[in-house]
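User: I'm writing a short report section on ligand binding and want a predicted complex to refer to. Could you take this sequence and heme C and write out the structure as tokens? A short remark afterwards would be nice.
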Amino acid sequence: MPAIISVLREKVCPRARRAGVPISHPSWRPSLLFVFALGALIGDTTGVAADADAGKNKAEACVACHGDDGISQTEDTPSLASQPDLFLQWQLVFFRSGARKNEVMGPIAEQLSNEDVRDLAAFFTSLKPSDSSAPKAPDDRPELTEAGKKAAADGRCAACHGDDYAGTKAVARIAGQHEEYLVKALHDYKSGLRSGGGVAAMAEVAYPLSEEDISALAHYLSRL
Ligand code: HEC
Ligand code: HEC
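Assistant: Sure. The structure tokens for the complex follow:
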């Protein structure tokens, strides 16, 4: 079992361990077993290889909300473009199993086969993220941006999400994500509505965050 735990930690967040970020969680046992059962699906090498072209066709059911190019135009709907492949697969599996609760995504994910999950993830991960160098609307709250930058450094978000917050493996891209959605996601982890995979790293990260921290982090990250 200890070997399995370290493998999972490595998978969920290879840099956290090196950075000494505490990612153990008292309630890891059930979620670990659960994740392991699902791991069989995602790690399945006997199935058909993921096909981004097939994913593009299947994504016709998704783009009305998530945007043609995977960049959503709606504040409460996350952009999916360039999210790490594994992160996308996990979230669809979590919605499908009900481990991540959402009244919109739950029924959609229930219709997806394992092959659909792999193809859709292969497609969305292949799309370009929003252009961070494109001119942005002027920052209406520069003091919030500064506070968010500091909260991100204090919270060591980059240890897992990467220096440019582009995510890796099962860790989400958070740079350039919609501000309102980021606020909601952090609240969902803090309240326990969403626990995430593996060792529930985000529940532990979000729990101590104040409302001010959450607004500041979301404002800062959405403008990257
Ligand atoms: C009717 C609108 C709608 C449609 C259609 C839709 N989604 Fe979503 N999707 C959402 C919303 C809203 C959320 C945010 C859920 C939350 O707040 O937890 C979401 C979240 C997600 C997430 C999690 C992303 C993250 O950053 O955590 C993934 C992955 C996803 N959708 C994939 C898909 C795929 C694949 C399809 C098509 C098969 C699809 N969605 C169709 C509205 C939609
Ligand atoms: C120990 C590693 C770790 C640290 C540190 C960490 N994260 Fe995460 N984060 C993750 C993982 C893993 C996920 C995916 C969890 C899941 O499956 O829901 C995630 C998901 C998220 C999401 C959801 C994104 C989406 O599209 O749904 C947000 C927002 C987020 N993290 C913000 C932060 C912020 C802000 C910080 C710093 C205060 C931070 N994270 C620190 C590992 C980490």
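A remark for your report: Residues 1-37 have pLDDT under 50 and may be disordered. The chain has two domains: 31-126, 142-222.
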